[in-house]
Write a structure and sequence with these properties.
With about 190 residues, the protein is an alpha+beta fold. About 60% of the residues lie in helices and about 15% in strands. Strands 2-3-1-4 form a four-stranded antiparallel sheet, sandwiched between helices. A hairpin with a 2-residue loop joins strand 2 and strand 3. Helix 3 runs antiparallel to helix 4. The protein is elongated.
């Protein structure tokens, strides 16, 4: 009887030792995960710090037009494209080329008026407008289909007609109807407004 009790106790001790080893292994895994999580949090705080440092600077806002810079817009657009892909949200990209900007006298004033007009055509801050190049603007509108995009394009065209002597070329593409590959869509939009 004593021998049986001894065997039962030894078996219980062995089981407890196995559980202890499993718990220690799990503790090491949790410590590793906690360390990785802390690294991710540190990186997020660094990104927030960088974002707020750039807020209102030339790296985010074009000083002449007061719309987003190309670099900042491309980050927003990449984020929107990924979000639209994951959540199946349609969006549109518009490109506006000022065909005769070089011929106009007060280029800076025209650029300011175009930037202001484009911002008035969309739902800022939900949608975004940027200066894409010296004479080209780009914008995206979220959660709109092709039919609504056509109406937005009409609104843009009507708004820009109020700027004297300005000639523009407009184009747009809708995700996912017209494109899936963002880089290819941007290249096609550039060709369409040339």
């Amino acid at each position: 009887m004593v021998e049986e009790e001894r065997e039962v106790l030894l078996e219980k001790i062995r089981l407890l030792e196995e559980k202890l080893k499993a718990c220690q292994e799990r503790e090491r895994e949790l410590e590793t995960l906690l360390s990785e999580y802390n690294d991710i949090l540190k990186r997020q705080f660094q990104l927030f710090d960088e974002f707020f440092e750039k807020l209102g600077t030339r790296s985010m806002i074009d000083p002449t037009t007061r719309v987003y810079s190309r670099d900042h817009f491309m980050k927003l657009l990449s984020y929107q494209h990924q979000k639209s892909f994951e959540e199946n949200i349609p969006y549109s990209i518009f490109m506006v080329k000022l065909s005769n900007l070089k011929e106009l006298e007060n280029k800076e004033m025209v650029l300011m008026k175009v930037g202001k007009s484009l911002k008035e055509c969309v739902r800022v801050p939900l949608d975004s407008v940027a200066r894409y190049s010296e004479d080209t603007f780009i914008m995206f509108t979220v959660d709109v289909n092709k039919e609504v995009s056509g109406k937005i394009m009409e609104r843009i065209s009507n708004s820009l007609e109020n700027i004297p002597s300005l000639r523009v070329k407009l184009s747009f593409k809708n995700y996912p109807e017209d494109f899936v590959d963002l880089e290819l869509a941007l290249s096609e939009l550039e060709r369409m407004v040339e």
